[in-house]
Amino acid sequence: MTTKDILSPYTKGNLQLNNRVIMSSLTRGRTTNQGLVPTDLHATYYAQRASAGLILTESAWVSKDAIGFINIPGIYTDEQVTGWKKVTEAVHSKGGKIFLQLSHSGSVSHADFFNGNKPKGPSAINPKEKTFTPQGFKDTETPEELTLQDIRNTIEDYRKASRNALKSGFDGIEIHAQIFTLIPQFLSSLTNQRTDEYGGTIENRSRILFEILDAAISVFGTDRVGIKFTPAFFSTGIIRPQEDTLSDYQYILGKLSNYDLAYVHIVAPGIDLSDTPLSSIKDDYFAFFRKHYSGTLMANGGFTLEKANTILVENNADLVSFGTYYIANPDLTDRFQNNWPLATADTDTYYQGGEQGYTDYHHYDSKKQSLP
Ligand SMILES: Cc1cc2nc3c(=O)[nH]c(=O)nc-3n(C[C@H](O)[C@H](O)[C@H](O)COP(=O)(O)O)c2cc1C
Predict the structure, then answer these.
(1) Is the pTM higher than 0.90?
(2) Which residue's CA is minimally distant from atom 16 of ligand 1?
(3) Which residue of 73, 83, 148, 183 sits 20 to 30 Å from the alpha carbon of 124, by its own alpha carbon?
């Protein structure tokens, strides 16, 4: 085992991780109660996965206005804080660490969630996505443009959500800034055509990202806040990389380097980047982030044990996160350690099913498996 093996510990400031196997955020649609409150079932699920070096929770709404999909928990009411407390206590009692992922849907939502009022986004531009409301799958519509006061309120919502996360006992916060959520809606000039200080140049388009980070940091401190994003998101709607995406990210990564966050979490592209505006980094994707970001890097997207160890040895990441593996392999760290086989998850129960496909994936029993 090398010192940079995936199973080796990692220390950053006062954050100490037992290993570098990180559970990435997985929305599982089990918060079926009216108040969007995490339950004992969530506590059981996360405690089963406590041997990860760090658990990143499913995304949680920072406010009622942030909702954009059914059965996802929030972190804006006292009841939700009480629910999350059960989760953090269950994980801590097993020696684990857990960050809460904070999210806002922006324009990728629907009037069904807001008594018929339109959702709000950076500009009045339909992102052309789909969203799942209590009435089923719906196409997004043209949102209302956030006013400057709405933007200030949104940043305060992130600050309150961070305070609630601290009260709930979380070890830190991850800001969800990938796919088509509010922050990428601001970063993309396809969905952000504002003419004020939040639109136009990358300094302006990324302003909200840094204001949200500052709000979370004001509660947790820099070494307890991470951010997850990717320039390589190719939506079925309108958000996709542009000619200036790489230079935008160079600017963002340069500015983030002054923050010394817990980590910057980067998702690998799901497609071949040839013939895209990101083709120049297609063969050495993570090296681009290493070059432009000086702090802790977490890599994600299609990693196996072997690939994870390779990227650590090549020094293009410090931590590696795993999403789908964690659905059916609650003891992923032990499976990696012992070379035990990995179980495959049932995709039908990814986003529904109560206990089924959620807490009924068991830890590997090597004795049972070796019986004839
Ligand atoms: C069922 C499911 C739910 C997901 N929910 C979230 C989420 O809430 N927040 C997030 O940032 N990523 C989410 N993701 C993406 C994963 O965290 C991860 O980035 C992705 O699955 C790639 O990693 P993998 O190849 O190890 O699975 C989800 C993925 C799946 C399969």
Answers:
(1) yes
(2) 323
(3) 73
